[in-house]
Design a protein that fits this description.
single chain, 5-stranded antiparallel β-sheet, globular, alpha+beta, 8 helices, about 30% helix, T-fold
Length: about 325
């Protein structure tokens, strides 16, 4: 599922400036490209000319897009969904296995097999699927329908996979690992608002300061900020890719228990974790879970920390978030 982070974007803050505008320094190289239906930025802060390594990293992103995109009909993922049986790449196998694991851990709040549902919700045309369409799609949901044997994957009972709620995080992890192997020490990846950091910014010896914009249509600026080092910060929310019909808001985060958009008390969930793919999927799951169950899930998984914003505009932080600077919400 595509993250709703471009309206509520997580933004990098350097010396009080919310990053998002291109600027040059002697020790900074930035590469901006497009993959997985979103903008992706690679920013390197080490001294020297890193154009070549950034170009190599971007080429790897394009390679992964050809494997993992649910938006590219020629991708390996789309071919698997069409053929229902395929010998897949190691990369797709890896992301499918992680998706199955997180589906189990979240008890289906994140569901790798949600594609039969996400494919019938049309946010551009503002169309609510017929109840019969949703009922039919629900019959195709369930990770028991995904069989992985080596690199061979079989999708049973009309099942299809949607890796879009995990792929941007997977790519961020993949590229940071590549940059490390190339000797880069200070960089970050912004994959459609999914932030993965390595080292620190030139202006902050503690790491990178991440600002989280307020997810309210009437609000401007950021809800708060925190500093992270060698971590990923991912936000999922209900305020982008949505429409209102007959007075009801329909957003893109689908609850596979009902086939309809989640109706929890959360506007957004921000997850902090070393593993960006896990943060990506868990942020989606927590929006479905709601604030109480979602915070319990975070506290029970020590690799996760979280910042949740409710529909009542309350900001909730997990016990491990020590330096979050709240800009005025409760």
């Amino acid at each position: 599922m595509k993250k709703a982070v471009l309206w509520v974007i997580i933004t990098i803050v350097f010396a009080g400036i919310i990053w998002g505008t291109f600027f040059k320094t002697p020790d900074k190289y930035e590469k901006i490209g497009y993959a997985l239906d979103t903008q992706i930025r690679i920013v390197i802060f080490d001294k020297g000319n890193h154009r070549e390594v950034a170009e190599k990293a971007y080429n790897k992103i394009l390679y992964l897009d050809r494997l993992l995109s649910n938006f590219n009909k020629d991708s390996e993922t789309c071919k698997l969904n069409e053929l229902k049986e395929l010998t897949v790449s190691d990369e797709l196998k890896s992301i499918l296995k992680l998706g199955l694991d997180i589906t189990e851990k979240t008890e289906g709040a994140y569901d790798l097999t949600v594609y039969p549902l996400t494919s019938i919700w049309d946010y551009k045309k503002e169309k609510v699927p017929a109840e019969s369409e949703i009922a039919d799609a629900l019959l195709k949901i369930g990770i028991e329908n995904v069989v992985i044997d080596g690199n061979k994957v079989i999708l049973k009972n009309g099942c299809s996979v949607d890796v879009s709620s995990i792929a941007k995080g997977y790519i961020a992890d993949y590229i940071i690992d590549f940059l490390k192997k190339e000797g880069i020490k200070n960089a970050f990846i912004d994959a459609g608002g999914n932030i993965k950091t390595m080292g620190r910014s030139p202006k902050n010896k503690e790491g990178f300061t991440i600002g989280i914009k307020a997810p309210f249509k009437e609000a401007y600026g950021i809800s708060g900020s925190l500093t992270v080092k060698d971590k990923s910060v991912v936000t999922s929310g209900i305020y982008e890719r949505n429409f209102t019909k007959d007075g009801k808001l329909y957003h893109h985060i689908i609850d596979t228990a009902t086939g309809y958009p989640s109706e929890s008390d959360l506007l957004s969930a921000t997850v902090i974790c070393e593993n960006s793919a896990m943060a990506d999927a868990c942020a989606t799951a927590i929006v479905v879970m709601g604030s109480e169950r979602g915070m319990e899930f975070i506290e029970n998984n020590p690799q996760l920390e979280g910042i949740l914003i409710t529909k009542e505009k309350k900001v909730l932080t997990s016990s491990g978030v020590k330096d979050f600077k709240n800009n005025g919400e409760n």
